[in-house]
Structures
1.
Amino acid sequence: MDILTGSLLKAVQLLVSGDAEVLRVVALSLSVSLTATALSLAVGIPLGTWLALARFPGRRLLLGLVNTGMGLPPVVVGLLVTLLLWRSGPLGQLRLLYTPAAIVIAQLVLAAPVVTGLTTAAMQQISPALRLQIASLGATRVQQLWLLMREARLPLLAAVMAGFGAVISEVGAAMMVGGNIAGQTRVLTTATVLETSKGNFDVALALGLILLALMYAVNVCLTWIQQRERPL
């Protein structure tokens, strides 16, 4: 209990004192995670909608791949992205390894299947009768998709929360592709692992509490939007 109390006080102290390193780590964590989440939404929502509404050969196989991707081990993703970005790899000339962009790519690979799978499930729950009704009213294809997405907006917001949660709490891939470089690629999760390995449990727990506070703050905002949109 003493170490937990001390860690909470340490977390408050680090934030209130405006510790430059902690603020830098927090800012980078939010930057890469929000960017990865936004990109996963840009990829996952259209792809999930297409998988839910379209009918084509191999659809079930593709759905199976998406569902498998929802449980991808972060270390495997980190390994694959590292091989792609390695100087002798296919994308080595871009020199993205051990940069924030590499972390964004790894987190995108982790989050996109989650958003895609949840979007597919959300769109499949819409009654086919509603689709026919919208089409019968003369709506264009784009209008139909927009109205269907509005109908499924509540579970889609859950997909946003799941995607963000998958990236902000990830450590294995971020460590592998980012290198945990101080001032450049160190995020809250990798910093927590580093402080734990050094035996600085009070600092590690403080960083963990800051991470939980960030996750809570973002998800509270998304939950408020979700519940506000909920029909009475």
2.
Amino acid sequence: MYEQYAFQVREALKKHHRWMDESLTLIASENVTSNLVREATASDFGHRYAEGAPGNRFYKGCKYIDEVELLAIDLAKKLFEAEYVNLLPPSGTIANLAVYSALAKPGDTMMALHVPHGGHISHAELSAAGVRGLKVRPYPFDEESMSIDVDGSIKAVRKYRPKILLFGASLFLFPHPLKELRPVADEVGATVVYDAAHVLGLIAGKRFQAPLKEGADIVSSSRHKTFPGPQGGIILAKGKYANDISRAVFPGLVSNHHLHHLAGLAIALAEMQEFGEAYADQIIKNAKALAQALHERGFDVLCADHGFTESHQVVVDVSAQGGGRVVADALEEANIILNKNLLPWDDVSRSRDPSGIRLGAQELTRVGMKEGEMEEVAELIKRAILNREGKERVKKDVIALKKGFHRVEYSFDRERGAYDYVQFF
């Protein structure tokens, strides 16, 4: 009787894969994994439990799980030059919550970016920071350069004397001033934490910045944005924080840690050792090319006087075109997938109808697009939004452009003659 619902789900998956196959996907917080990673995430590891640490599990049957987890830890330590690695958090938000739990008590103060300035929701009192009972004070922010105001922040740190200085962002165009603010963190006894969720792949590729070398004590992150792994979280830290973080993660917040994603992560770490520098370099080139092309076509791309971006992200003020919601909806009809986004001058209450859109170049880069294709993408966006050309006409040309880019690059799949990345049914 209920079999129909199972096949209804399968049909929805087929339709979704077909849609993504024919779309230009520019969501800055997404990526596609290689087929080797997908193979791992479909493995029997997904059926198993491995509570505890390798060699000291509460369950039997873990010898190969231990082998993979130890390999993944070793690869992560080498790739990020970290003394301590924890791969157990099932998301970046849980990784953040674990770090908050390890470092601070309810009532303590943390400094982080205000959400309209780019801070992630997990940095705010209405989310993970509030769950831990932290009081969050915002960094002073320079809207013109989309950067933390260093001089203002030094004064604010001395005033509020936070327990944690949290860097990193959801809207993240330029490196954060770790070196500049590390001395004042030491002055007030604050621990420096860097949420690398959006830029972990750029860090792995030796681009953007190196937070653990520039002053961060701990790096928390998801692992599926510019880093092309399966969804989940990761924590990197100096060795002195190992015990506190380990206890906060397990048994504090995590029981079993999604072992199929652990296996996929190990493969993604190996891929980034091999291809990470080339991949990160091309992501940034593509983001800059996309920003310049949109700017030349009349869009109000933020930070034109500062080179637009040094990350995978491009941010555009589309208030003159009806706002972020209207523009994102219109582009989706043409199979151009991106997200509306708050801009620094938006009130947080406008989160459902903000002034901006945010674009990420990492996924189109992953399937082989380069600067020339970014020009084509910008032209398609112009046709749909500024020219108000019929969405079906634009959609037809979107499908034609995407048709040549179905293979996952910067991965070992290329060496194996991999099949197209959406062909699973």
3.
Amino acid sequence: MYCRDGSLSALRNSLLIILKNRSDEISPRMHKLILNLHQDWIGLDERVKMTTSEIEDVSKAEVNCQHLMIIPGIGPIISTAMVAAVGKGEAYDRGRDFAAWLGLVPRQHSTGGRTILGRITKRGSRYLRMLFVQAAQVIMMRPQNWPKFSFGAWLEAASTRMQHNKLGVALANKLARIASSVLNSERDFDWKENELAAAV
């Protein structure tokens, strides 16, 4: 069962009231167990907030993270994870090499002079690959913003011919390539600069 964040917050904040109102239906042992789990839940939320705050502080202090966070869909978590994994990306001559290392490129099979594209390779950092795919999905949820991006025209055209999940992976690939180019160039991403998107 999946809940929206709002409903989870409402449950967390009103759980004690619910337990009090249902005290005649819940055994004392179950009541105590739920209270203990509720405390664990609150403690875990506090740890998540603390860790998130630490990540945000690091991203604000790290110049490379600041460059990356100007890219659509990329925030403190992805920027710090990428810098931690590849530094300035000197190991990759091109953005395509970084995307290939992440496993965001399709396997290729050649037969009869024809190249067939298969599933993505899923090599490299599984965590970082997942983050880029999530970033792509966030962008895809807001098509009204696509025209703002240098890759907006490509995304609009691709959305008419590609299945949703494949489009998400293709966009994640493009974001990874742009991120690699930004790290190598040590300059900010220009949302309307087609040259930067083309260079990757």
4.
Amino acid sequence: MPIRRFRSAAEMEGTVWLDRDDPRLWPTIASVWDLSARLCPMHFPPGLRKHRSIEEANQLNQEWEATNVLRSQPG
């Protein structure tokens, strides 16, 4: 993805958004997802887990998310 420089916010109008019919849209989305996965990889322990309640499942999910957020912060 090329880097563009703008002298004002007015120059940015219309340059960022792609129409949903634009054939470049899906490759652009894929490249953004790939970049985010490389810069801040999310890690969830492998395997299947059974929970006794939805609250228990939500609690484990929140713990995993918190761990991933802490891992992504510098320092």
